[in-house]
Amino acid sequence: MSVHRFSSFDGARLAWHEMGPVEGRPLLLLHGLFSSAEVNWIKFGTADRLARAGFRVLMLDFRAHGQSEAPTDAKAYPVGVLERDTSAWLDYLAISDFDMAGFSLGARTAAITTAERMLEPGRLALCGMSLAGITDHGAGTRIPDFVQTIDSYGSHKPGTEAYMTQQFLKTNKVDLTAARALLHAVTDTSDTALRAIDVPTHVICGAEDIYLNGARELADAIPGASFAEIPGTHMSSVTKPEFGEALASAFG
Fold first, then answer.
1. What percentage of residues in the chain have a pLDDT greater than 70?
2. By percentage, how much of the chain surpasses pLDDT 90?
3. Exposure of 94 by Cβ count < 10 A (0-12 exposed, 13-18 middle, 19+ buried)?
4. Residue 175 pLDDT more than 90?
5. Residue 139: pLDDT over 90
6. Per its UniProt record, what InterPro entries does this chain match (predicted)?
């Protein structure tokens, strides 16, 4: 595996990781919130499974995540910054024929860039995310809760959802100022645009994921989309071998 960096649309230095045969079909992977390419795709073998399937696996570390730069100036986080970063990354890679998959925040980003015609993947996989989570993040995701968790960081009691988020932030060494700014930059796409996605789409979700029902709604909303249920919760499903198998099957 190799690690690289590029300058995004505003000069921010972002990291990306590559695994698999260079002649393989490019597969872009976008990780979840407060995670990284390492945690989401590499650590538990998903990237390796896809590389063994013959894909050139390309994994971005979002701004303020992983090995990418984490600027603390709010001006570095305009609304839609993740979508712009992903588009800039693809421009840098200079590839036009590719597939794309995202988990949670990464699924939102993959869906929005596709629905808004910023990117044109050949095939798409949206994992661990719901219909409402893409069209109305204020009501359909826990992003407002995450802002509150950051604002009261250090005060959360063990056993609570906020404490689990706090520990995840700590474990992944997330800069809290950068994370707060990023959360305020999250955008949505319209229900109409989402339902107009016309590329083969696969929706994958854990059987105990809080977004399971909404993920089924997402699959129903996108014309021709398939749905696959895998073991695990929102946090644990990415650690299961079934996650990589489901993606390999979706893109097989």
1. 100
2. 95
3. exposed
4. yes
5. no
6. AB_hydrolase (IPR050471), AB_hydrolase_1 (IPR000073), AB_hydrolase_fold (IPR029058)
